[in-house]
Amino acid sequence: MARPSVYIKLKLPKRLIIGLSGGADSVALAHLLLEQREAQGLELSAVHVNHGLRGEASDDDEAFVRDLCARWDLPLDVYRAQPPEHPGEDWARQTRYAFYRQAVAQRQADAVALAHHRDDQAETLLLHLLRGAGLTGLTGMPEDGEVLGVRVIRPLLGCSRRQLREILAQAGLAWREDESNQDTRYLRNALRHELLPLMERLAPGAAQRMAATAELLGEENAVLEQLARRALNDGEAWLPLDTLKDVPPGLRPRMLRIWWQRYAGDAMQERGLSRRQTEQLAQLVEAPVGSRCNLPGGCHGYRGWTHLHLLGRETTKPGVTLQILEGAEGPGDGKTSQAMPGELLEGCVVRTRQPGDWIRPYGQAGRQSLQDYMTNKRVDAPFRDAVPLLCRGNEVLLAAGIGAGAVPPFAPANENKTAYWIGVMPWMKQ
């Protein structure tokens, strides 16, 4: 048999957990990794998830894996799931990765190794193509990436299913067959047993070329991903419209998907934007102020005067504080700094807006409700509850990054102090 390094060229992390279902591919992966254990100084263990979906067959799979790992002297963690009344593929996947996360934590492992191979990659490309995926979807599965909070490596993406069966045959190793994998009512199974064999007959080597295409697209996708991330902020729930207008239109959808993923976080990692949702969010860039679109998880996008906003879950508000400095060299700009007599500050508090707040805009006659003032200043509605205010009762003297109220004109002879706002104020007009 060929050396294991011929089949596994990926640099492997030291502490590795093998996802061992008992099927042919995972048994071949475990065998190849064990062949390299001593040479590469690997610390290997295995994890098996009994989903409980196939009755005795599931229990027989578990027994097979236990016996195999005992013979190999391979540490094993077994997890047994309790399926709901109507389990589906998504439930099984979510459950499996939840157990993987637990195993990684318990073993203090670097990653989980899965046995996806070249034919799986071709199937994935076809599956995504039939579902209307864009470039990211057509890159297939990465050799080293993160799935649902778990670092996953796939050392066998350069191997075919046939090669793995040959490895098992030469090593005299048995495996378990999952009869559900033969059911062509499922799209992936139909691709595996019907479409791919036809493509191989029509164009021998089709699977290998498709996997190579996925790898090439992955390299190009990584470049675009890097460009998109450079153009974004640090994952806030707001995004300046100018940021989107200054990039090529073809890059906007990718930026919006990354922005959404940062906002959604791990809790909604699997609730990515569909193509339609991405298009609707992108259309807000040219839409009237106040326009909205629906997004996953009860969230929605909102078009403000200056920013796009993601709304619907708690997010970190801008951290802005007020510093009072002794003396004043000038009147200040009325937005980030303002000179005022020291006695005017007595009894004032810093807070965010409350019902009944009002302001007498500096240099203007009369007073306005704070709501009208912020509207006139074109402060995006989602920002308004986050703007820090210097207030005396319901009267606003200073609105951070927006403007001043009834502050006396600057007089150098007065005993002035300077109110200075410090922090990020995305609502501020430059």
SSE inventory with pairings:
Elements (H helix, E strand, L loop, with lengths): L3 H4 L7 E5 L4 H17 L2 E8 L5 H17 L3 E5 L8 H19 L3 E3 L4 H13 L4 H4 L5 E4 L2 E4 L7 H11 L15 H16 L3 H26 L6 E3 H5 L6 H13 L10 H9 L8 E3 L5 E4 L3 E5 L8 E7 L10 E5 H4 L3 E3 L6 E2 L8 E2 H7 L12 E4 L2 E5 L3 E2 L11 E8 L7
Parallel strand pairs: 1-2, 1-4, 2-3, 4-6
Antiparallel strand pairs: 5-6, 7-10, 8-9, 9-10, 11-19, 12-19, 13-16, 14-15, 16-17, 17-18
Helix pairs in contact: 2-7, 5-8, 5-9, 9-11, 11-12
Continuous helix count: 14
Biggest sheet features: 6 strands, mixed
Class based on secondary structure composition and strand pairing = alpha+beta
Give the N-terminus to C-terminus distance in angstroms: 69 Å
Give the strand order, joined by hyphens, for the main sheet.
3-2-1-4-6-5
Overview in brief:
38% of the residues lie in helices and 19% in strands. It has 430 residues and is α+β, with helices and mostly antiparallel strands.
